[in-house]
Structure formats: C-alpha cells, structure tokens
C-alpha cells in the first residue's frame, strides 16, 4: 500500500513555534505475511454425518492450499491427544487434493472446503485433516485438526474432584437428525492417559453415569464403536460454552463466605464524603445465610 504524508509549514508546538517549511513523505508497506488456519475452537471438531462433510479454512495472501484427510481409529485418537506435536498417522491418506484460492490482497478470507469427493458424506468415524500452503511454514497446531463424524450427539460432564471422593461421569446420547434420546448404547469411559476405564449403557432417556472411584487427573472421554460417537469433558471441549462465555463468574476454590461492597453512588465531586456499604453472607450451595445464624 502506498502512503503520502504532508507536513505543512504552520504546524506549531505547545509554545507557538512553527516549522515554517513544508515536507512530503512517501512510503510503501509490504503485503501482510501469508497465513493459513483452520478456524475450529480446539484440536477436535465435530461433524454431523447426516450432512455433507464441509469445513472452512482461513487464509491471507495464499494462492493454493494442499489438504490431506486420514481415517483414524480410537487408539490413534488417544495417541494424537497425548502427543499432538509429534503425532504422525501410521496409515496412508484417505484423500489428498489441492484447492486454488483467490482473495483481495491482505484480506482475511474464509473458503468452504468439501472433505468428501463430490461434496458427499463421510462415514461415521474419526479423521485427521491437515492443510498446508507453499507460502506458509507448516505449524501443527493451526494446520491440523481431529474430526469426529457421527450420526449422534454426546454431551459429557465430569467432576474432576479430589482424591478423597469419587470422580463421576455423566453422558447423554441423542440422535442428531431427530434430537431423540438413544437407549441401549454401550459407552466406554476413559481418561486421556488411559488410567481409568468403565462401560455404561444408556437408559430410555439416553442417559448414563458412573462413579470412577478416584481422582480424575485428565480430560475424560466417552466413546462407542457402534454406533460410532466420541466426546470429551475438559478445557478443550468447553470453548464457547463455558461460564465465562456467558458473563458468569467461576471459582474452583471458593471459601465459605461471600462479600459484596459498594458505594452510595458512582461519581463524587472533590470534598464530598464517600459512603460504603458491605454485605457478608455464608454460602451453602445456592443459599446465602446471614452470619447471625452461623
């Protein structure tokens, strides 16, 4: 981009001194560095197997994107999660192809990409997608994603609590096409490090839960081979739906008491008296008790 800056003779400093001369400065900025990324919240994306398999890629000043799609097993998924930076698939790509991109210079653009040939469906399962561009240095975190393709949605909740109590896991399985709960599905529960494992069966409401009998020290995953579904509970699975995303305060080591202090008005003039008021309550789950009752 070309720029021109004109400095006039009447520009004055705080004391009234002027430059008494004019100057014109011209310069040109270089284009933005080429960039390529997969705009998914974290390492794992979820696709509806009922719908054509499609994602979008983000790019700036890139003319061609090269893509590779791998089909993985559950063991491969856990291997990748444990060692994402060094993981390499042990199988040949399911599909390799290139995509020509066009966009205005320096403008971030999002281009839809069909993952299956003919803009079709992908069978339920686990996949690894990698993208590269000749102009961009390969970077595993932003250029590769694991994809879960399933006919079902699995919601997982876990309690990552101390060793003096039992860690518990809840799972809710529903059909993505109808929204109805799925009964009788056998689900396997395990942590990313494989230390804890259990199997549960969903009831008529699509619900299943179990106590794992100890401290849950890592993310918890729930999966089933038939019908295929996989989901997890942990930091990587709550982006966009965590309490902070809705303006809610969170705390994991709160004390027994809550205090709120405020002033009698938001703005004061110099010399005015500022009055404070404070309220202290004992917290018992969703009840706040006056201290006179403690």
Architecture overview:
There is one protein chain. The protein is mostly beta strands. It is 4% helix and 42% strand. The protein has two helices and 20 strands. It has helices spanning 74-82, 140-143, and strands spanning 2-7, 23-28, 35-37, 44-48, 54-60, 64-72, 95-100, 109-114, 125-132, 144-150, 152-158, 168-175, 186-191, 197-201, 207-211, 220-224, 229-233, 257-263, 276-284, 287-290. Strand 13 (186-191) and strand 14 form a beta hairpin. The longest helix is centred in the first third of the chain and has 9 residues, at 74-82. The relative contact order is 0.13.
Short description:
The protein has two helices and 20 strands.
Question: Whole-number average pLDDT?
Answer: 86
Strand percent estimate: 35-45%
Number of strands: 20
What is the ordering of alpha helices and beta strands? EEEEEEHEEEHEEEEEEEEEEE
Rg (C-alpha, Å): 28 Å
Shape: flat
Instruction: Determine the number of helices (DSSP H or I, runs of at least 4 residues).
Output: 2
Structural class determined from secondary elements: mainly beta
The helical percent reads under 10%
Distance between the termini: 69 Å
Going across the major beta sheet, what is the strand order?
4-10-9-6-7
Poorly predicted tracts of residues: none
Largest sheet: 5 strands, mixed
Element layout with pairings:
Blueprint: E1 2-7, E2 23-28, E3 35-37, E4 44-48, E5 54-60, E6 64-72, H1 74-82, E7 95-100, E8 109-114, E9 125-132, H2 140-143, E10 144-150, E11 152-158, E12 168-175, E13 186-191, E14 197-201, E15 207-211, E16 220-224, E17 229-233, E18 257-263, E19 276-284, E20 287-290
Parallel strand pairs: 4-10
Antiparallel strand pairs: 1-2, 3-5, 5-8, 6-7, 6-9, 9-10, 11-12, 12-15, 13-14, 13-16, 16-17, 18-19, 19-20
């Amino acid at each position: 981009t070309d720029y021109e800056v004109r400095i006039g003779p009447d520009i004055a400093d705080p004391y009234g001194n002027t430059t008494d001369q004019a100057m014109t400065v011209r310069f040109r900025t270089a284009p933005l560095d080429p960039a390529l990324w997969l705009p998914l919240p974290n390492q794992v994306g979820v696709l509806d197997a009922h719908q054509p398999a499609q994602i979008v890629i983000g790019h700036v000043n890139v003319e061609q994107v090269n893509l590779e799609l791998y089909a993985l097993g559950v063991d491969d998924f856990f291997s990748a999660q444990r060692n994402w930076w060094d993981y390499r698939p042990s199988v040949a790509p399911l599909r390799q192809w290139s995509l020509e991109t066009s966009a205005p210079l320096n403008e971030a653009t999002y281009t839809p990409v069909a993952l299956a040939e003919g803009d079709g469906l992908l069978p339920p399962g686990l996949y690894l997608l990698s993208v590269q561009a000749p102009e961009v240095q390969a970077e595993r975190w932003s250029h590769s994603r694991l994809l879960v393709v399933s006919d079902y949605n699995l919601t997982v909740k876990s309690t990552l609590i101390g060793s003096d109590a039992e860690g518990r896991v809840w799972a809710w399985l529903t059909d993505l096409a109808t929204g109805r709960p799925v009964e009788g599905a056998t689900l396997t529960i395990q942590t990313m490090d494989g230390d804890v494992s259990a199997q549960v069966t969903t009831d008529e409401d699509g619900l299943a839960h179990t106590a794992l009998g100890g401290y849950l020290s890592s993310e918890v995953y729930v999966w089933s081979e038939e019908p295929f579904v996989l989901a997890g509970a942990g930091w990587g699975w709550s982006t966009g739906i965590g309490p902070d995303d809705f303006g809610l305060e969170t705390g994991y080591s709160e004390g027994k008491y809550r205090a709120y202090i405020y002033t009698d008005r938001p703005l004061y003039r110099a010399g005015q008296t500022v009055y404070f008021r404070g309220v202290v309550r004992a917290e018992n789950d969703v009840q706040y008790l006056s201290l006179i009752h403690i």
